[in-house]
Amino acid sequence: MLALLGLQEATQLFGLSSQQNLSAVVRQGRFTPADYHLSGSPLWLMDTLIETAPEMRAKSRTVVWAVVPQVEAALRQGRYTGPGSAIVPRGPAARKAS
Q1: Distance of CA 17 to CAs 20, 34, 87, Å?
Q2: CA-to-CA distance for 81 and 94, rounded, in angstroms?
Q3: pLDDT class of 81 with cuts at 50, 70, 90
Q4: How many Cα atoms occupy the beta-carbon half-sphere of 57 within 13 Å?
Q5: C-alpha span between 62 and 67 (Å, rounded)
Q6: Which residues of 31-47 are buried (b: 16+ CB within 10 A; e: fewer)?
Q7: How many CB atoms lie within 10 A of CB 17?
Q8: What's the first-to-final CA gap in the chain, in angstroms?
Q9: CB neighbours of 50 closer than 8 A, spacing ≥ 6?
Q10: Which of 6, 12, 26, 58 is the least crowded, having the fewest Cβ atoms under 10 Å away?
């Protein structure tokens, strides 16, 4: 299964404590370039992140960039239910649904 990850899923894939920390690394250009952008948000193929993890690990002084096997397996099998797994309406669409 082809998995497309946003910031929330990437945070979980690497077992990071905060999405804001990953967002900062992305904005500073110190993270793997996004494969796609949707509404200004970066998106990556999971395989891109896994393949570039050793390079990111070599450049980092503080983050291990180790893939969490359980998260990888859940994403590959289409059974991931963590942060980012559901589309939450925002803006005018969310107000109409209330």
Answers
A1: 9, 21, 21
A2: 21
A3: confident
A4: 11
A5: 15
A6: bbebeeeeeeebbbebe
A7: 8
A8: 34
A9: 67, 72
A10: 58
The predicted-structure confidence for 24-66, as pLDDT tens digits, reads as follows 889 999 899 999 999 999 999 999 999 999 999 998 888 889 9
- Provide the 10 A C-beta neighbour count for residue 63: 17
> What's the token pair of residue 9?
């899923």
pLDDT single digits (tens) 5-18: 999 999 999 999 88
Q: In angstroms, what is the C-alpha Rg of the chain?
A: 14
| Distance separating alpha carbons of residues 87 and 98, to the nearest angstrom | 16
In the chain, the amino acid numbered 21 is: N
